[in-house]
């Protein structure tokens, strides 16, 4: 056990560092597996009891495992392993909060992740500037070039950036107390992160950050906490900058004026997914058949994009309805409810913000289907889920007092 405790720090730093070398996906996979094994080494399974806090997570895994083993025509142990990482292993993070070294290093781990994403955004910004002769500030072409050459989907890198922004906002909550050089560093990091967000410009992630800002504002107001007018101005300025510096929103409005939402690929994906769900009587279906059946449903839309690319449901809730039926959807939503409820109860507003970010991102993407999405979700749960699952002594507020 003592040896395992010594491994926490290097493993967690390597885990967040894997975001910097995102293009080596195998390294991320290895670090998720190593982190899972580390947590298992801490677990005392004889003391582990099913409670209303952890039951939704366990049921989510059991339901998916049942479908992946018994219901589908071909078993998928890979998907079972992924479900284990998403729903069971994070429950063991409660044991991390019993280890003093983890408590001391938590904010440093947040900072390390924010540094990694800031460096990535610096690279993306440099690539964007270098690529100006090719895209001429055309947002769609610029993002296409970024995704094509850098091999990462815009929504997922924006999700990673948003997590870094929330981490950094939490770290700078006592901004006035920092020396000038640290203030300068944090300012530069915020500029880089927001630059990356503007360049890739994923709408649901940006909307998520705006909603989170609103929620945090209401919570602070409810607690009669003095809210800086400068902070409100900065948030509004950031929102306006994103909207005005990108043509995307203007072109979206123009599209809706000239066309119907029914002409969009998103509508096709959601409507066809709904048909399959209804056809399965809300009890799920063979995951091996889902994409082929979606492709068949797309034919009447006569949309070149639907014909060229294998478009999935683009909604995590619909994805779990397709794969595990209504029971899986209810179990999954219950895990999110648990996170929100106890984050508010224990005033862990960082984890609340992260959960809201994922709840919103799930509306327009199958986030937990791709490794990049799994990585972000797994990272946040490993770092913070244990703080709300344990007793009061394990809460984030108690830890920060030590």
Automatic annotation (TrEMBL):
The membrane-spanning stretches of this chain are: 20-43, 55-73, 79-99, 111-132, 152-171, 183-199, 205-220, 232-250, 320-338, 350-368, 374-391
Which keywords does the record carry? Membrane, Transmembrane, Transmembrane helix
Pfam families xrefs: Wzy_C (PF04932)
At the top level, the lineage of the source is Bacteria
Localization terms from the record: Membrane
* Residue ranges occupied by any O-antigen ligase-related domain in the UniProt entry: 189-333
What broad class describes the main subcellular location of this protein? membrane
- Would you name any one GO CC term? membrane
Membrane topology per the record? Multi-pass membrane protein
Q: What is this protein called?
A: O-antigen ligase-related domain-containing protein
UniProt organism field: Flavobacterium crocinum
